[in-house]
Each structure stands twice: as structure tokens, then as C-alpha cells.
Amino acid sequence: MIVGREPRESLLAEAVGPVDRVDLFLVRLPFVTPFAISTAVWTTKDAQLLRLESGGLTAWGECVADPDPYYASETTVTAGHLLKDFLVPLLEPDITVGDVERSFRRVRGNEMAKATLENAVLDLIAKRRRVALHELLGAPRKKIMSGISIGIQDSPGALVAAVEDAVGRRYHRVKMKIQKGKDLEYVRAVRDRFPDLALMVDANGDYRLDDAERLAALDAFNLMMIEQPLSYSDFYLHSILQKSLKTPICLDESIHGLDDAVAAIALGGCRILNLKQGRVGGLLESMRIVEHAAVRGIPVWSGGMDETGIGRAVNIHLQTLDGFTLPGDTSETSRYFHEDLVEPPVVLDDEGFIEVPQGDGIGVTVVAERLDRLALHRERLR
Ligand code: OSB
Ligand code: MG
């Protein structure tokens, strides 16, 4: 396995170097169609972007926090506050990547804000070394698998139509969002139409342990997994629920770092992990989780947060690591946005695979004119 300790240790020892200028942008990109989960409906993607400038190089980090606390407790505003007042001030010229992580430990929680700065620092270091981000992480170039997350629809018929479209585009697996009452009938409609489709559901915590029987009824549909059926902060009740389900439970919201992954796996609270690098504080912590899960035989896949092309590129580079054994929530750009911030867009090849962007660092370029037009707010931090 290439994913090992050595590249990470040389990476941890690398100096961040002088950063000449730091800017924070709040952008808003309209979605092609609204995206509904059990707790929220989003019509736009709002994101904080952090830009570092150093020795003629420009590096980016995208924060995955939403404008509301309906998926996670962090929001665009809290992340902006943490970056401006606590995290960016820690960037001293002589600190190393390892020092950045260590200095972050004093700041409790706020993993999404931390990941934003870490992403930008790693993009900068990769660009300075003139390597792609995946090389910096120690993984060889490869195509990655695609997957699509389909929001809650108004009727089973509308859902089947959306799944038909996804299958036609050759996505490797389809995830459908469910909530209490919009579950069995919807899953049955999709399963009847596509008996062999790699299919899973995501409840975003809409159920309680009392609903165990209703959830067990999903066992009849040969789902790959049920993602986050119970509370966003729980592993223990998930471990009880898992005992009464044949379908594997996958945790998303509950996992904020390696310690959570260790505990959830040890308890039997999940048999699969959705790893969102932004939710666990960045790429370095993601690498630790991937290694730990691999040793425990727990499959890992990369989740998504409907990112712009910046965060999407990071997720793609990350998935070149061994240990990402299942298709993730990485879809083509055109399913989210008519116009993204970056070039080139993500596309699927005719077998549904995604190429890692070419070029140094994240390998995509932010189009200045689009950034100007789509920014709601900008602030120079240094
Ligand atoms: O629960 O995985 C989730 C998007 C926003 C917030 C939470 C989730 C999602 C997705 C979409 O499922 C994943 C994507 O296409 O990026
Ligand atoms: Mg989820």
C-alpha cells in the first residue's frame, strides 16, 4: 500500500512558508434544481472560500459548512469567524504542516473551518513542489468512481424519473434521500424499476430507535447501506439498531474525526463510513481514518457537500487513496450548477469514471470574472 506513514511524515515536516496575502470570499451559486434532505432544502450553494497568496502562487480552500445549521452545527458565518479570528492568525511563516494541525487542537470542534485552511495550505505546498494534490498525499493517479445523491422528491414517480436519468449517465451507484413517510414506497418504486442497481438511502438522522421495525422493512430491498438513520450525534443507538438490521449502517454526521471513527467502529455503530474531509478537519485526518477503517475491514467512501469545483477537486484527489473502495457522492458539475467557479468542470466518461484534474495542487483554476460575479462578500484577512 502506498498510502503510508512516510509521505505523511515528510508532509508534516514541510514548512508552510511566508503567506503574503489571505482573502475570504462568501460565494453563492444557484443550483440547477433545489436539493432536499430530511432537514433542509437548498436552492443555492453558499460557501466560504479561503485564498492564500505566496511567492506568486495562489492556493484555495473551500469550506463545506452550509449557511444554516441543518446538516452540521457549523455555518458559513461561524466558519468565517473562526477562520478570521482564530485559525488564519495561527499561520506563522516558520510553522510546518504538523504545527498547523497541533495549533488547531486548542480550538475545539469547528472541523469544517479547520479543513478550509488545511486544504488551502496543502494546495499551496503541492503547487510549490509542483505536484498534484494526490501525489502530495502519496497516491498514484487513477480514475475514480462516481455516485449521485438524489434529493427527496415530491412523488415516487418523480424519483424514478431522476434515477432513470442517473442510470443513463452511468453513475456507479445511486443514493436516494429518505425521511420518515417518504421511504418504503419510494425505495420500492426504484427497486421495482431497477432490480440490480447499486442503491442506498440516506436519512440524515430522521429516525429514532422506535422506528427499528420500519427500518428493518428496508432489508427487503437489497440496499448497499442505510446512511445516518438516527441522530447526528449518536453511535451507541446505531449499534443497537444495527443488531436488528441486515442492511449495513453507514455513519456520516456522527463522525468528526479519527476518535469518533474508532469509537463507532468498535461499538458496532457502523459497518461502512462516509468520509467527508471537511467534516473531519481535513485531508490529514481523513488519511488516518482511511487507514484505521482499512485495518478494521470497514469500507470507506467519500461523501460530498454539493461543493463548488474547488472542494469537488479536493474530494477527487482524496479518493485516489487506497481504502476508498466504494463509489462516493462525487457527481459531474452539470448536475449541480449551470456555471461553476472553476475550469475544467467534472465530467463522467462513458463508463461513469472521473479523471483527476491535471496540474499542480488541486488542478483546477478559479475563473476571476465568475468569482467577482458570484461573491456576496469578500474580506482581506492579511
Ligand atoms: O448527507 O450526504 C449528505 C449534501 C449536503 C449535505 C449533506 C449531504 C449531502 C449529499 C450530497 O448527500 C452529496 C453531493 O452530491 O455532494
Ligand atoms: Mg449523508
Q: Compute the CA-based radius of gyration.
A: 20 Å
Shape: globular
State the share of residues found in helices, binned by percent.
Answer: 25-40%
Helix-strand topology string: HEEEHHHHEHEHEHEHEHEHEHEEHE
Residue ranges: pLDDT <50 for 5 or more in a row?
1-6
Largest sheet, order of strands side by side? Answer: 4-5-6-7-8-9-10
> In DSSP terms, counting alpha (H) and pi (I) runs of 4 or more, how many helices?
13
What is the secondary structure topology, with strand pairs?
Blueprint: H1 5-12, E1 21-37, E2 40-54, E3 57-62, H2 76-87, H3 97-104, H4 111-129, H5 133-137, E4 148-150, H6 156-168, E5 174-177, H7 184-193, E6 199-202, H8 212-216, E7 226-227, H9 236-243, E8 249-251, H10 258-267, E9 272-275, H11 283-296, E10 300-302, H12 309-318, E11 342-343, E12 365-366, H13 368-374, E13 375-380
Parallel strand pairs: 4-5, 5-6, 6-7, 7-8, 8-9, 9-10
Antiparallel strand pairs: 1-2, 1-13, 2-3, 11-12
Helix pairs in contact: 2-4, 3-4, 6-7, 10-11
This protein binds 2-succinylbenzoate and magnesium ion.
